[in-house]
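Case study: diguanylate cyclase.
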Amino acid sequence: MDDLKVSDSVYGATHEAIARTLRFALEIVSDGIWDWDIRTDHVKRSPGWYSMLGYAVDSLPENVLTWHQVIHPEDFERVMRGFRAYLDGTHPVYAEEYRCRCRNGDYLWISDHGRFVEFDKEGRATRMIGAHRNIHERKLAELALQRKNQELLALNQALEDLVAARTEALRRANRALAEQAAQALRLSEIDPLTQIANRRCLERQLQVEWHRLQRHGHPCALLMFDLDHFKRINDGFGHQAGDRVLVAVAQAVRQDLRDVDCFARWGGEEFIVLLPETDAAAAGSLAERLRLNLRRIDVALPMPLTASFAVAQMVADEAPGDLVRRLDAALYQAKRQRDCIVVS
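Here is what the predicted structure looks like once written out:
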């Protein structure tokens, strides 16, 4: 029995020595240590812990509630989640960084690490030891760097948004300019009265078809007509009546043409139809149909409306200008007879 008492005494002394050695080691590597007896809820804090926060040694209640009260309210829930996760065994370590309230009311950033060191016979933890370390300067620098990075990210995002906005604005502006240019081109190639193509547009399309003939040999014909006695209409009924006749003629002729045909007002009461993939015979048939249709147009005039027509087929060794002159010469012959068709 005496030997057993001696053994227990030696064990107790050894245990106390180990605990003291552990506390000394913790004090060396930390700024403050805490020792929590889980069964009694008693928490012993080292003098360094009090000194770190500016409190007198042992001036605060030695329980867990004291710890709760010094944690910054904004950090409390996060710290408790980490602490409970360790107590529940759902996380292998307890390690948190948070702010503790000092005696003067300021807050100090600390790191807090702890672990179980004793267990009962059923394996339940009965004691936990932890260490606090002052990380205030490092944490402030870290947070400042984070803020700078966030500011930089925000600035980069703002610049990206600005570039995107400017790019989109430039795209819209370019599209608007392109649309305006296209509209200007369309307007520059449309006769404002009849709303069909004008001389400029016809000449451009004539060049296109002439080059197609050179490369591929596709046939192309031109049909030119002039309204008979149009001067009498203007002189006898006024230019508004003449304009009304020109518009009615343009509308009627356009209904008999294909989408690929280019119908243009050549000047005054003269019109030209460019007919891709069409030979002289087909162009002559179209001219006859148009000649008859023009007679039936209701222009509210006491006289019938007639027109003289000329037809010519494009040939490879003839320049577009020469073709138009040949066509014009044929029309001159037709106008000498009136209401007829001359094929050149």
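For the exam, be able to explain this: The radius of gyration is 51 Å.
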